[in-house]
Structures are given as C-alpha cells and as structure tokens.
Amino acid sequence: MALIKKEDFSIFWILNFIVFFIIISFGLFSPPENLDLINFPDKLMHFLSFFFLSIFLFKSNKFFTESFFFIIFYAVVSEFIQMQLIYRSADLIDLIFNFLGIFSSLFFKSFYFKALEKL
Fold first, then answer.
1. Which residues, 6+ apart, have CB-to-CB distance to 110 below 8 Å?
2. What span, in angstroms and rounded, lies between the C-alpha atoms of 101 and 105?
3. What is the pTM assigned to this prediction?
4. Does residue 8 carry a pLDDT above 80?
5. Range of 89's domain?
6. Residue 40 or residue 28, greater confidence
C-alpha cells in the first residue's frame, strides 16, 4: 500500500516544472553573458520566472502547502546564493518580484483554473 496515491501527481506538470526549474536555476546562478539575446528587464524576468515556476509546481501535485513553502524557500535561497557568487549580486527588489510572481500565480490558479474546471 502506497503512502501517496498515484493521482496526487501529474507527470506532464512535473516534467514541465523540472525543466523550467533547471532553466531558471541555470539563469539565476550562471555567470551573466551577452544579454542581447533576451531583452527583458531583470525585474520582469524574475516575476515571469517565479510566476510560471509556481504555476507548474502547483499544477504538478495536490500538496499545495508544501509546494507553496518550497517555492517561497527557493525564492529566498536563490537570492542568498546570488549574494555568495562573485559574478552575481542579491537584490531585495528581485526578491520582491519573485514573491509577486508567486502570489500572482496563486491568484491566477484560484480564478482562471477554477473557471476552466467548471467548463
């Protein structure tokens, strides 16, 4: 008998989360190079990264509380790691935009996905 039911996870959303998590982590922790390829402002990138990362995480499983604390923890730890890297710097405004992305995904999840489920 399994402790976690099979339907508590969605493989599609888990794979999306893992791929996006790796891409975001690479972007956050790698040395900055030529930024002409992506012409988004830094704060918008933080917002969108954590918005989509949160959406994928929340959709991948039914453990909302654990997922919420994990994504908040990752947002804080990612800024702390950037503070330790010599080629990166931590910024409180970046952390705020990380949180704005997370909380916006909660709003999106609670209204948009609920509306889609009713259709």
1. none
2. 6
3. 0.79
4. no
5. 46-119
6. 28
Decide if 110 is inside a domain: yes
Looking only at Cα atoms, what is the longest distance across the chain? 53
β-bridge partners, 9: 61
Any domain includes 37: no
CB 20 within 8 A of CB 52: yes
State whether residue 41 is helix, strand or coil. Answer: coil
Per DSSP, what are the bridge partners of residue 61?
9
The three-class DSSP label of residue 2 is coil
Residue 95 vs residues 7, 10, 91, 107: alpha-carbon distances, Å: 33, 29, 7, 19
pLDDT of residue 1: 46
Which position has the token pair 């690479």? 26
